[in-house]
Structure formats: structure tokens, C-alpha cells
């Protein structure tokens, strides 16, 4: 190959040409205001319509009310959109065939011109490409139960090991193996901070999982200091800020926990595995709890969005 063409093709391997950052987000990044990324799998596959669309809007509103700027991320029209217009948000929320796009699937989704909803892993990656440091969601993926037989470990954990974005979440659902997930995070050197007076790693619908994080604090200045120090040291890993579901929303925790156990048994009996496992379990748990799990889910994501917006503002102020 002509050496100049070769040089050009090397230089052109930049993700920038695939990113479409909306004006508000661009401006906020330029002015060093806080920006909070939001994933779209939670909209397309994690919640039913129209709760998903309303929640998507409410999360953006909460982030704005805290003085930060939301950036919901999704793939369509061969671009990774960072910040969605009203119309694009609706397209994701109503789509029946949006792909669940983890990091592995980003290239395929773009190349095939599919509509893609980004998971924690791909949202983190895209956020980092755009210069966004904080991301709010409900729960991250983790080590699945029976992972010793299935090898099913979410790419979210690998992304946390290599991408310096802070994920504000309510821990992981007990549809997963929480102790193994926490161990994996430790092995891969991910800062795992519990946002609480007590060092109890949360279990999504309930405040405590029985596992511990690395450290606990309710002081976001301290959290920001740890993130900044990690960055200065050049450590590649991300940070988990695990926020327990607010007490007033976890009254049905035990009921939901029983539904999870039943859904897990059904998934096993019906041999539902791989990428299909999480959406199946989530929708089955919703049915079994008469919608109570969905209400709790919405409440905890909103709580996380608020905390993430506050953290993003502190980080932005420190860097400006
Ligand atoms: N956990 C939830 N709700 C979700 C997910 C996880 O409580 O919607 C989604 C997130 O997008 C997460 C993904 O990144 O599932 C993990 O899927 P997998 O295990 O296939 O990596
Ligand atoms: Mn998996």
C-alpha cells in the first residue's frame, strides 16, 4: 500500500467520526459544566413503554434541575448519539427491534445501520470517547449465577476495569451472583465506593447484599478526590458509586426477592441464557410482583441520577 494512504488509514481510525454529540452536551463539555451520561438499554429493554419514555425524560429533568446536563446515549443512523432529541428518545422507547448493544456489538450495529440501545459497557465506552466522566443507571451487569458452568460474565465488568468513567448505580440485582461480582471488581482494580453511612454493597431492590464495597462515604467531595487521584495516577479503571435504594422505596424488597428466585428457576428450566437472560428475568419479575419491581426500579434510577449530577458538577468544578 502507498505509505501515504497507509498513514491516512491509520489516522482515520478515530471514533470521533461516529460520534454525534448534541449541541447542549457539546457546550456543557466546552464550558466544563457537569455532564451525566445515561444508557438506553434501560429504556429499550429494561422497562416497558410508556414507563420507559417517561422515565427517560424524568431522569434528564432531574439532572438539569441539579444544574448538570444529561446525555442519553444510543445508536441510530450509523452514529453514536451522545444526547438524544425528543424524537430520538421516542424512537428508542417505542422500537420493537432495537438491538441490545454491548461493547462487542457497537461496530456491528453501526456497520449494519441498526438501531441500538447501549448497555453499561458501551455507554461507558462512548461517554469516555466524548469526554464525559459520570454515568447514571439502575444496576450494572455482573457475574451471573452458575457462571462456573456458563462463563456468563457481563462485559460491563470488563469495561469498568479499563474505562475511567464513574458509574452511579444501585449495585447489582440479585438475579446475579453478587459476591462473585464484587470479587471480580476487586480483582480488576475497580474503585467500588458505597454511598452510605455503612459499608454494605447494595442489592438493587434492597439496601444490603451481604457483601461489602471497598469504602463507604456520603461525602461526594471525597468521591471526587478519589476519582481525580485515580486519573492523576493514570489508572485505567472506572469507579462504581453504589447508592442503596432509598428506604421509602424498598418496602417490597422481600416480595421482589422471592419473585427473583422464581424467575431464576423458570429461566433455568426454559434454558434462557446469554444476552436474553437479563431482559427475561426483569420482565418476569415485574409480572410476578404486579409491577412493584418496576416502581422501585424507577425510584432508584432517579435517586442515582440526582447523585450523579451532583458528582459531575463537583468534578467539573475541580477541573476548570
Ligand atoms: N440490570 C438492570 N437493568 C438493566 C440492565 C442491567 O437492572 O436494564 C442492562 C444494562 O444495560 C446492563 C446490561 O449493562 O443489562 C447487562 O447485560 P449483560 O449481562 O448481557 O451484559
Ligand atoms: Mn452475558
TrEMBL record:
Domain of life the protein comes from: Eukaryota
- Pfam families cross-referenced by the UniProt entry: Indigoidine_A
The entry lists its GO molecular-function terms as: hydrolase activity, acting on glycosyl bonds; metal ion binding; pseudouridylate synthase activity
Q: Which Gene3D superfamilies match?
A: Indigoidine synthase domain
Membrane-crossing residue ranges in chain numbering: none
Keyword tags: Glycosidase, Hydrolase, Lyase, Manganese, Metal-binding
One GO CC term of this entry? cytoplasm
Q: What start-end ranges are recorded for coiled-coil regions in this protein? A: none
Concerning PANTHER family, the annotation shows: CARBOHYDRATE KINASE PFKB DOMAIN-CONTAINING PROTEIN (PTHR42909:SF1), ZGC:136858 (PTHR42909)
Q: What is this protein called?
A: Pseudouridine-5'-phosphate glycosidase
Q: Which organism is it from?
A: Mesorhabditis belari
